[in-house]
Amino acid sequence: MATETATKWVIDPMHSEVQFKVKHLVISTVSGFFKSFEGELITDNDNFENAEIDFSLDINSIDTNQSQRDEHLKSAEFFDAEKYPKISFKSTSLTNTDDDEYELKGNLTIKDVTKPVTLKAEFGGSATDFYGNTKAGFEISGKINRKDFGLTWDGVTEAGSVVVGEDIKLLINVQFAKQA
């Protein structure tokens, strides 16, 4: 998309968040966040259809509000942050499906495993802030199976309950700032 009309948008981390949810003991849900991430969106003119998206997050910024769990998630049993410090996503398509609804397809890389994923993206709109900067907001959601990406650690209680569910729900709210 390297055309004269391409527009670059960069994530505004102060107005964005990356959240995940996973079942614990199959009876409740644990939520967590990644506090450090970056990304950009390249559009053709100001149309988001077929935008190119590159996104990455820092594993060491994981926060589940419980430091021992966070350290376990960073360990080799899960993300192995020392060896694989980033999770990355590169889009293959962004297709408008209905009004402000989009289908976002791309390649997600966790550890050394890259798999295609399909996510939902809802365009929240665009606006100009107090400083004259144009911003655009999206809410991205979806679900992945952690085992598909090599996150295979399993714990089972004495009673036979699974400690961590396989499906991970993703909820990403991002605000992009249009670059001059």
From TrEMBL:
Transmembrane segments: none
SMART domains recorded: YceI
Record's signal peptide: none
Coiled-coil regions listed in the entry: none
Pfam (any one): YceI
Domain Lipid/polyisoprenoid-binding YceI-like: 8-177
Domain of life: Bacteria
The name this protein goes by in its record: Polyisoprenoid-binding protein YceI
Species of provenance: Mucilaginibacter pocheonensis
